[in-house]
Write a structure and sequence with these properties.
The chain is mainly alpha-helical and 412 residues long. 69% of the residues lie in helices and 0% in strands. Helix 7 crosses helix 8, helix 9 runs parallel beside helix 11 and helix 10 packs antiparallel against helix 11. InterPro entries: DUF6596, RNA_pol_sigma-70_dom, RNA_pol_sigma70_r2, RNA_pol_sigma70_r4_t2, RNA_pol_sigma_r2, RNA_pol_sigma_r3/r4-like, WH-like_DNA-bd_sf.
C-alpha cells in the first residue's frame, strides 16, 4: 500500500518539488535538486513501510528541501564556502514557495525553461518529461521511441546548455511565447499518451500521467497570454480521451476493444468540458494537429454505439490530418478506419506507405493492423503470421494477452 502512495505522490509532486527548489536555489543546481528529490522518494518508500505520515506532502517537501541543502552545503564546503540557509528568512522564503499559487507559477516557469530555444528540440522534450513529469529515462525512451542511452545524452546536453548559456528561471518574452508554446504542448501531449497507452509491461493505463497532462494544460489556460486555439484543442482532446479511461480495461484486467467498451462508463462531465474547449478553440485563428485529433475523438464519443460510428467522417479527418502534418501513425490509424469501412484496397495501400521503422516501439500496432486486414479478407495463415510479429514486438502484458486471444480465435 505504501508503495502505491509513494508512486502516486511521485507522479503528482516530483515536478512541483523540482520546480520550487530550482526557483530558490537556481537552475545551475538542477541536477543536484533532481537527485535530492529522487532521494526523498526513495527514503519515503523505505520509512513509510510501517506508517505513512499524517501529512505526506509536507513530509516530502521538508525532506527534499533539507536534502538539497545538505548536498549543496557539501558542495560549497569543498569550495571553502559557507551555505547557511536552513533557518531564518531564507528558510521562511523557501517554505512560502510551497504555497499553491507559487507552486503553479514555478511549474509554468520550468515548462518554459525546458522549451528554451537554446536547447535542441529533442533535448527540450526529454528534459521536460524528466524534470516536470518525473519520467524515468526508460519511460522517456519509450515515449519518444528511442534508446535509453540517447535520452541520457540528451539530458546531459540540456543541463550543460542551461549552465553554459546561463538560462534564467523565468517566462519567455511576449514575442516568443507562441513559438515556445508549440514545444510545451508537444510535451503535454506525450505525457498524456504515455499514460493513455502506456509502454509499462504490466499496466496499460497510468491515470496519474493523464491527469498530470490535463493539470499542466489547465495551468497554462489560466494565463491569458498562453491561450490559443491549439491549446484549447489540445485540452479538448485530452478531455475526450480521459473520458474513456474506465472502459478501456475490464474488471479482470483485460483490454476492451472500442467495439465492446461499455459506453455508460464514459465520463460525460469530461466530454462536456472537452466540447466547451473545442468551442473556445474556434475563437482563435490558429490550427493544429490537435484540432483534427480532437475532431476524430469527438466522432467516436458522439456515436451511441460502435455501429453508429461515422467512419467516413473519421476517414475524412485522417486525410485532412495527414495533409496538415504527414505522420506514419496517421496512416496507420487511417488504415484501421478503412478496415471498418471494408475498404480493403485502400487499407492495403495505406499500410504499404508506412515506414515501419518510424513507428519504433509501437511497430506491433502495424503488424496487428496487417493481421486484421488479412483476417478480414480471409487469409487466416497470413493473419496468424502477422499476429506473431505483433506479439514479438509487444512488451505490455495486457496487450500480449489480447493479441494471444485473437490468435487463439483464428486457430479454432
Amino acid at each position: 500500500m505504501e508503495h502505491k502512495v509513494v508512486d502516486h505522490l511521485f507522479r503528482h509532486h516530483y515536478g512541483k518539488m523540482v520546480a520550487i527548489l530550482t526557483r530558490f536555489f537556481g537552475l545551475s543546481y538542477i541536477e543536484t535538486i533532481e537527485d535530492a528529490v529522487q532521494d526523498t522518494f526513495i527514503k519515503a518508500a523505505s520509512q513509510w513501510r510501517t506508517k505513512i505520515p499524517d501529512n505526506p506532502e509536507g513530509w516530502l517537501n521538508r525532506v527534499a528541501k533539507n536534502r538539497t541543502i545538505d548536498i549543496l552545503r557539501s558542495i560549497q564546503a569543498e569550495k571553502n564556502r559557507n551555505l547557511s540557509i536552513t533557518t531564518g528568512a531564507s528558510s521562511l522564503q523557501i517554505d512560502e514557495l510551497f504555497l499553491d499559487h507559487e507552486v503553479a507559477d514555478s511549474q509554468l516557469r520550468m515548462i518554459f525553461v525546458a522549451c528554451h530555444p537554446s536547447l535542441h528540440p529533442s533535448e527540450q522534450i526529454a528534459f521536460a518529461l524528466k524534470t516536470i513529469s518525473g519520467f524515468s529515462i526508460k519511460e522517456i525512451a519509450a515515449a519518444l521511441l528511442t534508446k535509453e542511452e540517447t535520452i541520457a545524452k540528451r539530458l546531459l546536453r540540456a543541463r550543460k546548455t542551461i549552465q553554459d548559456k546561463n538560462i534564467q528561471f523565468q517566462y519567455p518574452s511576449p514575442e516568443t511565447v507562441q513559438e515556445r508554446m508549440a514545444r510545451v504542448m508537444e510535451v503535454i501531449y506525450l505525457t498524456f499518451n504515455e499514460g493513455f497507452h502506456s509502454t509499462n509491461k504490466e499496466k496499460l493505463i497510468k491515470e496519474d500521467l493523464c491527469g498530470e497532462a490535463i493539470r499542466l494544460c489547465q495551468l497554462l489556460l489560466k494565463k491569458e497570454q498562453f491561450r490559443s486555439g491549439s491549446l484549447y484543442a489540445l485540452f479538448a482532446l485530452l478531455c475526450f480521451h480521459m473520458s474513456r479511461l474506465e472502459s478501456k480495461v475490464s474488471s479482470d484486467n483485460q483490454i476492451v476493444n472500442l467495439q465492446f467498451q461499455d459506453r455508460t462508463k464514459w465520463y460525460f462531465p469530461l466530454i462536456k468540458m472537452g466540447n466547451s474547449a473545442m468551442l473556445k478553440a474556434t475563437e482563435y485563428e490558429d490550427t493544429s494537429v490537435y484540432h483534427y485529433e480532437a475532431a476524430i475523438a469527438s466522432e467516436h464519443l458522439n456515436a451511441k454505439t460502435f455501429k453508429d460510428t461515422h467512419w467516413k467522417n473519421i476517414s475524412y479527418w485522417y486525410e485532412q490530418l495527414y495533409m496538415f502534418k504527414p505522420n506514419m501513425f496517421t496512416l496507420l490509424n487511417h488504415a484501421t478506419v478503412c478496415l471498418q469501412l471494408s475498404d480493403f484496397e485502400k487499407t492495403h495501400q495505406l499500410l504499404k506507405r508506412i515506414d515501419v521503422a518510424e513507428l519504433g516501439q509501437r511497430a506491433y500496432l502495424y503488424y496487428g493492423c496487417y493481421a486484421e486486414y488479412y483476417m478480414k479478407i480471409g487469409k487466416r495463415q497470413l493473419a496468424i503470421s502477422f499476429l506473431d510479429k505483433a506479439l514479438a514486438g509487444t512488451t505490455n502484458r495486457l496487450e500480449r494477452d489480447y493479441l494471444t486471444w485473437k490468435r487463439r480465435t483464428l486457430l479454432n
